[in-house]
Please model this.
Amino acid sequence: MGLKEPLLSSRIHILRAEYKLTQKDLADKVSVSRQTIISIEKGNYTPSLLLAYKIAKTFGKPIEEVFIFED
Amino acid sequence: MEKRVFSYVIILIVGGVLFLLSEIFGKLDSFWGGLGLALFIFAMLRLIQIRRIKTNEEYAEKWSIASNDERNIYISKEARSKAFNFSMMIQAITLIIFTSLNMTEYIKILSYLFVGQLCIYFALYFVLRKIA
Model:
């Protein structure tokens, strides 16, 4: 969890488009601010495992399909 | 929430009394008046916010998300830890300046403060290491 740690990229914006969800909709579903979703999408903020799990669950996908770990 | 309301009411009363004793009755000097006014305004704003949370559902939800948002919590913790680092550096530099100017009284006070803060840091570090 932290700012500017480019180890984890996400496919949230792709999945959001697929599921027709706005950043605000997703933020409300996982009880965080819209700014947090924006930061995760931009790769500026690495979410906690719990939040990553909640986001993945919202899309009905396993965590590794939403977040991609880059070596 | 009720406990918070109670504590803010106490702060409001203490602040008001300090302000009155200083500015109206002249029993205390202006420092206490200023402090009292600051406490009064702080408690008043908090009480207004609590009232808004209780009466406005939309605001309550926004407030709850903002105060429980993990990124906000992370940023707040990071800012506090950086503030501690910077204040320790500033104190260390000030200590060196005071030493070179031979200001013994200030050196003594600042040294106690510096060592005290380091002791609190290490105590917390070891406690948190055991918990986490």
